[in-house]
């Protein structure tokens, strides 16, 4: 299967969320990539533990 033939709704191999709050934020902002959420400091991607945690600006939910 080529990358172009993978359905858009197929989950990417992204790390799990550390808790329910992080999972809900990721669902609410699913139009943003994990990298974008991390750049906005909404989440912190712990690559060593392969998990996504709350970032410094988690409560702000700034999507601009």
Automatic annotation (TrEMBL):
Name listed for the protein in its UniProt record: Uncharacterized protein
Disordered: annotated segments: 1-20
Domain of life: Archaea
Natural source organism: Haloarcula nitratireducens
């Amino acid at each position: 299967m080529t990358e172009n033939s993978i359905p858009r709704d197929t989950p990417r191999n992204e790390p799990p969320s550390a808790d329910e709050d992080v999972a809900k934020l990721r669902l609410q902002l699913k139009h943003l990539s994990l990298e974008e959420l991390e750049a906005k400091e909404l989440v912190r991607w712990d690559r060593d533990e392969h998990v996504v945690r709350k970032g410094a600006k988690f409560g702000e939910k700034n999507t601009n």
